[in-house]
What does this fold into?
Amino acid sequence: MNINKLIFNNLSLKLVALLIAISVWVLITGKQRTFLERSLDVNVEYYNISNNLDVRSVRPDRVRIVVKGPSKEITKLELSNLKLSVDLKGITEGTRMSLFTEDYLVLPENTEIVSVHPKMIEITIEEFMAREVPVRVLYKGRLKNGIKLIERTLNPEKVKIFGYKSKIINIDTVYALDSVNLGDIDKTTSFKLQLKKNEEIIRFEDRENVDLTVVVENKNEDGTNK
It folds into this structure.
């Protein structure tokens, strides 16, 4: 076989084919080199939540994502360009939601998700409520000899508490923070008592204290204990 003839036969066509192959290879490898991957932490956001609801917890409150795209766009990518937003429109009562993270990711054009961790996010939504409950004052000690209790008046007798429904639904009474020592009373006396706010109560709706009046009759002539 004539080697020279084999090599140089249709040489121009072979050179053209070689140039085309090189061009395709350069184009393909060039594209591969212009793509980058980048890891970012994205905050979980929510919107359209009803006024009587609150997002008590989001677990986790941020997710780690790896995105891929053209190097020019990936390099200048900012967290403000990425969103993990959950639309809570239509939620009407407290609930716990387990969501697929990827379903709520919004990415810029020409980028794609390589990986997401964790795959699921959990949002706990709690309903607020207000309810009226009676106030109770605790007493200690005894009235002195000769001191007769006529009446005790509490204003107001009930107050409105506000908090998460699951936390305050079983609260039937609120107490004054301090007790009243009956042994210290020898005449009609008024007290302003602060209400005790336990951890279940977010706030008192109208007021944080009550007025107590203890009306007594002092049978001692000089107004002292005998």
Q: What stands out?
A: The helical segments are 3-8, 11-33, 71-75, 165-168.
